[in-house]
Design brief:
This protein has about 375 residues and is an alpha+beta fold. It has a four-stranded antiparallel beta sheet, with no helix packed on it. Strands 1-2 form a two-stranded antiparallel ribbon. Helix 2 packs antiparallel against helix 3, helix 3 runs antiparallel to helix 4 and helix 8 packs antiparallel against helix 11. About 10% of the residues have low confidence.
Length: about 375
């Protein structure tokens, strides 16, 4: 529930900031990019805070289960923490990739929530915003984690040394090496669990959404190169030497990694088929384009907004483009006049979508696109999962 509330709050923030900026002509062109970037930064802060909350909740829930063996206890705790972190890190990304802009409606029939229009994608679609969200969350998470892993142990060790000096100020110059080591921060009871979890979450970023953010593996590589040295410094200079414990394998982590790899096939298939423009472009080239190119594609993807009010009599027309008579129309509540005859107009309002201008229903091309996208998803998954 906390995660759902956090996601909803981010969506409400985006709607509110966009609506506020659209009222000002000077900042209106920057409303989409501003709401996207600021919401992603806020999301990173929320993720960092909820990390600690989820860990405490997972510890309490696992203790309540009273497992018979330490292995069962660790596997249960690991699975809970991964589920919490999965929702925490990826919920907003899944929302932008698969839900945002899919249920917003069309002009004069927009879907609303609490009196406000649902969140919409920008003029270029949701793919750019998805890439921005992934970049900010992934890189921001790496920077925050590295800083925390380096600074927190240093602060703990400094505090312990401070207490020791306060107790024996005269023996400050006679402190032996084992006493200095004793002042180092102690490794938590879960050992390298945090390191495993960090790598698995990073693995999710570079597999689940690699079609939208191809640079993710590069950022992961750079982060790992830096983190190798930071972890070496942390374990040698700021932490006590951990007690060696034998382990049969990596436990439930293997099953989690296997599940993430298989889920990544599904998510990338839908990103390519639904979120990106890959399928519509191919359909346009092979089914609609007169010369087999993308010339005219942008114009083809723009639907005509319904014009419902007749300027003369005030009656409502279900069919906008009357092929017999010439109507002088205007947008409800507006002053601009439209002269429409057949399929032409002197001035029109258009929006992204494959909808009929008469009633806003999906066009034939939209159904062809939907069928092709689903077929692509099935073929993509079968080919990769069967390998």
């Amino acid at each position: 529930m906390i995660v759902v509330a956090a996601v909803i709050s981010i969506v409400v923030y985006r709607v509110a900031i966009t609506a506020a900026m659209n009222k000002n002509d000077a900042v209106r062109p920057y409303s989409s990019i501003t709401s996207s970037l600021t919401s992603a930064i806020i999301q990173v802060a929320i993720i960092t805070i909820l990390d600690k909350v989820y860990q405490k909740v997972a510890v309490v829930l696992t203790d309540w289960e009273m497992h018979r063996t330490q292995t069962e206890h660790e596997d249960s705790f690991t699975f809970k923490m991964f589920l919490f972190q999965f929702v925490n890190y990826y919920s907003s990304v899944f929302y932008i990739a698969f839900f945002k802009g899919k249920f917003d409606g069309y002009p004069y029939n927009y879907n609303e929530l609490a009196g406000a229009r649902l969140d919409q994608c920008g003029a270029g679609g949701c793919m750019i915003e998805l890439t921005q969200q992934l970049a900010i969350i992934m890189v921001g998470k790496q920077v925050v984690n590295n800083c925390v892993e380096l600074i927190i142990p240093k602060l703990k060790a400094w505090w312990r040394r401070r207490d020791t000096k306060d107790e024996d100020p005269d023996d400050e110059k006679c402190i032996q090496r084992w006493e200095e080591d004793y002042d180092l921060a102690d490794l938590n009871q879960y050992g390298l669990f945090a390191e495993y979890l960090e790598m698995v979450i990073q693995y999710g970023f570079i597999t689940l959404f690699v079609a939208a953010f191809p640079l993710a593996p590069l950022f992961a590589l750079l982060n790992n190169i830096i983190e190798i040295r930071l972890d070496a410094y942390k374990f040698i200079t700021t932490l006590r030497r951990p007690v060696a414990v034998r382990a049969q394998d990596i436990g439930i982590w293997y099953s989690i990694l296997d599940g993430v790899a298989k889920l990544s096939v599904v998510t990338n298939a839908f990103i390519i088929a639904v979120t990106s423009e890959f399928i519509p472009r191919l359909l346009y080239i092979y089914a609609e384009s007169p010369d087999g190119s993308l010339r005219g594609y942008v114009n083809y993807t723009l639907a005509y907004a319904p014009i419902l009010e007749d300027f003369d009599g005030g009656s409502v027309h279900n069919a906008i483009y009357d092929t017999v008579a010439v109507h002088q129309l205007k947008v409800p509540g507006g002053d601009e006049l439209y002269n429409i005859h057949g399929n032409t107009s002197s001035s029109t309002c258009r929006y992204r979508g494959f909808r009929e201008p008469t009633d806003g229903s999906p066009t034939k091309f939209w159904w062809e696109y939907l069928t092709t996208a689903l077929a692509f998803v099935i073929v993509f998954e079968v080919c990769l999962l069967s390998c």
